[in-house]
Amino acid sequence: GVKDDSFHVLDLAEYTKNRPWWRKVFAPSSGSSAEKYNVATQLLIGGVTGWCTGFIFQKVGKLAATAVGGGFFLLQIANHTGYIKVDWKLVERDVNKAKQQLKFHSSGNKMSPEVKSKVDEVIIFLKKNVILTGGFAGGFLLGMAS
């Protein structure tokens, strides 16, 4: 068999002309969700997505804590039984060096322009979508608790 390497190209401009719902949802001038949905819908969307995120975050957090704690426990057992030897002076020196670097970087309190612009975008989004964000925060906390 001869392999056919032809591709179908989707022109989004033409696609959206025939679908008004696409323009309503994804148009750049569509505004914030506060303008598109009523308060109950925003709370429901925010709450459901927040709960799902919180639930997953809780499960992954427990798994990560178990892995880190278990790994540390196994290292301690291996150290005490003589399988490995830990140079604690080297560990202490590296930790102190890391602390000094953290103090040096945090003393400047200057963000790069890229980070500052992203933070500004997030703040603008949060201000425009207060109800959605509140629903998400509440759902996230409920997800973490369940």
Short account of what is shown:
With 146 residues, the chain is an all-alpha fold. It has helices spanning 12-17, 20-26, 33-36, 39-81, 88-108, 113-128, 130-145.
Sequence-ordered SSE layout with sheet pairings:
Elements: H1 12-17, H2 20-26, H3 33-36, H4 39-81, H5 88-108, H6 113-128, H7 130-145
Helix pairs in contact: 4-7
Comma- or semicolon-separated keywords:
transcription, 7 helices, mitochondrion outer membrane, mainly alpha, 146 residues, single chain
Q: How many strand units?
A: 0
Largest sheet: none
Report low-confidence residues grouped into runs of 5 or more: none
> H/E series, N to C?
HHHHHHH
How much helix, percentage-wise, in residues? over 70%
What multimeric state do the chains show?
Answer: single chain
Count of DSSP H/I helices? 7
What integer value in Å does the Rg equal?
25 Å
Mean pLDDT value: 80
Q: Which strand-content bin applies to the residues?
A: under 5%
**Count of individual domains:** 1
Distance between the termini: 55 Å
General shape: extended
User: What is the structural class?
Assistant: mainly alpha
